[in-house]
Amino acid sequence: MLGLGVTRNVVQHAVRAGAVAGGAVRWATATAAREGTATEPKPVYLDYAATTPMDPRVLDAMLPHMVENFGNSGSRTHAYGWESEDAVEEARASVAELIGASPKDIVFTSGATESNNIAVKGVPRFYSRSKKHVITTQIEHKCVLDSCRALEREGFDVTYLPVQTNGLIDMAELEASIRDDTALISIMAVNNEIGVTQPIADIGALAKSRKVFFHTDAAQMFGKMPINVDDMNIDLLSISSHKIYGPKGVGALYVRRRPRARHPLWHLPTDLVVGLGAAAKVASEEMAYDSAHVAALSERLTRGILDAIPEVEINGDPVARYPGLMNYSFAYVEGESLLMALKDIAISSGSACTSASLEPSYVLRSLQVSEDLAHSSLRVSLSRFSTVEEVDHTIALLKGAVERLRDMSPLWELVQEGVDLSTIKWTADH
Amino acid sequence: MKLQIKVDENGVIADAKFRTFGCGSAIASSSLATEWVIGKTVEEAAAIKNAEIAKYLSLPPVKRHCSMLAEDAIKTALHDYKEKLEKKTQN
Questions:
Q1: pLDDT classification of A2: cutoffs 50, 70, 90
Q2: Which residues of A lie inside 8 Å of B (Cβ-Cβ)?
Q3: Is the CB of residue A430 less than 8 Å from the CB of residue A351?
Q4: Is A409–B1 a contact, with Cβ atoms under 8 angstroms apart?
Q5: Cα-Cα-Cα-Cα dihedral sign, residues A194, A292, A50, A143
Q6: pLDDT attached to residue A32
Q7: pLDDT in tens, A334-344
Q8: pLDDT tens, residue by residue, A372-402
Q9: NIF system FeS cluster assembly NifU N-terminal domain: from which residue to which, for each copy (chain B) (predicted)?
Q10: Residues of chain B contacting residue A358, judged by C-beta atoms under 8 Å apart
């Protein structure tokens, strides 16, 4: 299996290189512990949409820059600096190659959140004398929506496009909302809650024809599905390292050279940047394998769930999606109680009970998913390292947990008795 | 939450069952409610306060309303029992 085999390589490499082996060995030991013993069940991680472990090859690439090649890439006067600068430029090229861009158009940031802020706020502000309008969607990541709110406070108009019940925007609505003073369209490539893909190439073509900049938050797509910024007419693109088996704390922003928006420069953490570059390189090499692997597991998971458990809905279009990010609603069972019942699996829910504000997921609400089903949702996300055993184990645990919770559910009882839930008076008067 | 109580001829709750669609705290609150009402008289059960349930379960502030729902469920069940009892004695 890929994970275990590569683990051994990392340990051997680290020992051979004579680097401070503590890090790699501790990592390998931690992995062994995570894998469990003969008697303890293995805890299963299926929340890769939240974050991913580093690919051992990424760690391999980073370690030297933490101990031997530790120079500041900005140091111009000695080999430590030059070597770091070379490493950064190599990383830049790897990232660029993965999206068909020139390395000169890649800016490293602290992550996709910063990249989104720079793009969404930077472009309109730069053109604020003549442009007053921004278009985005209702299902964007919080950092994009918050950036748009900030722009509104500065006097910009923002159009938040609704989505259809399958999670996709309506191209005609997008076209109709473009104004002469629209500075930017920002629409995410793959949604982080439901996995749906927007028609990025179509949006890019439309934006170009109307001379509007097009930014896409590609945090969940980069390294997983093919992207070409020229073919897709993308002007700005946000990248997250820790979503593709790279280190946390670094990301990138692609900015097309002409025309260009201003952006800040900052001192680069060489080891993190090298990590992102390595992650991009590995993703490029593994994309064919990864896609096939994740698609097969996703199909197995969905099939297994639908066969074993009645009354399950898939949230978001079944086809226009990244298969590794699935969102299911289990009717008549609440999400947080389901998460608790599945404590040996790491997943997340769109239920209100799991959010501090007690509001259900705004993404699911935008799909017009009913309140009950929004409360009953689970997000399951797969990876390069996921296995058939993990998927089968999850299906079995889900079946058991859903059955147990439905036995406890008054809604399920009523439905079994043939009652139409919409006719129930829920609170008694007394 | 759905709460069912079985009350004997002395007005003592002999058995109680629950069903809940809700988070872990809601399920726990309603489950605890059934445990607490068993063996109590109808009057004693009516005196159970949501604060007691919340304290026993160490519910965090964001989950306190789950205990309120449980208290409501108890009161609604007792009210329903009273109504049925009146109907029975009328016939």
A1: very low
A2: 332-337, 340, 351, 353-354, 356, 358, 408-413, 427-428, 430
A3: no
A4: no
A5: negative
A6: 45
A7: 888 998 899 88
A8: 888 889 999 999 999 999 999 999 999 999 9
A9: 1-86
A10: 62
Chain B positions touching A430 (Cβ under 8 A) are 75-76, 79
Tokens representing A406 are 């439905």
Q: Given an 8 Å threshold on Cβ–Cβ distance, is A358 in contact with B80?
A: no
Task: Evaluate if residue A65 carries a pLDDT over 60.
Answer: yes
C-alpha dist (Å) from residue B79 to A243, A342, B38, B85: 54, 36, 16, 10
Chain B hits for A356, CB-CB cut-off 8 Å, are 62
Interface of B with A (CB under 8 A): 1-2, 18-27, 62, 72, 75-76, 79-80
At A265, the pLDDT band (50, 70, 90 cuts) reads low
- Please indicate whether, in this complex, the C-beta atoms of A413 and B19 are within 8 angstroms of each other: yes
Nearest CA in chain B to A376: B22
Whether B51 is in a domain gets the answer yes
CA atoms within 13 A on the CB side of B18: 24
Burial A215-239 (b: 16+ CB within 10 A, else e): bbbbbbbbbbbebebeebbbbbbbb
- Distance (Å) from the C-alpha of residue A357 to the closest C-alpha of chain B? 8
Q: Give the pLDDT mean for A46-51.
A: 94
Residue A5: pLDDT band (50, 70, 90) is very low
Residues of A marked as catalytic: 353
CB A258 within 8 A of CB A315: no
Q: Categorize the per-residue pLDDT at A11 as very low, low, confident or very high, splitting at 50, 70 and 90.
A: very low
Rg (CA), chain B: 13
Q: What angle do CA A255, A257, A259 make, to 5 degrees?
A: 100
pTM: 0.84
- Separation between Cα atoms, residue B57 and residue B33, nearest integer Å: 11
A251-255/A236-240 β-pairing: antiparallel
At A77-125, the pLDDT tens digits run 999 889 999 999 999 999 999 999 999 999 999 999 999 999 999 999 9
B86 occurs within a structural domain: no
Query: What is residue A372's predicted lDDT score, i.e. its pLDDT?
Result: 83
Domains of chain A: 58-285 (3.40.640.10), 286-407 (3.90.1150.10)
What is the domain extent for residue B65?
2-80
- B56: domain CATH number is 3.90.1010.10
B87 found inside a domain = no
ipTM of the complex: 0.81
CB contact under 8 A, B19 and A356: no
Domain count of chain B?
1
How many Å lie between the alpha carbon of A274 and the closest alpha carbon of chain B?
42
Q: How far is residue A297 CA from its own chain's centroid?
A: 18
* CA proximity to A219, closest of A127, A152, A141: A141
- Residue B56, in any domain of the structure: yes
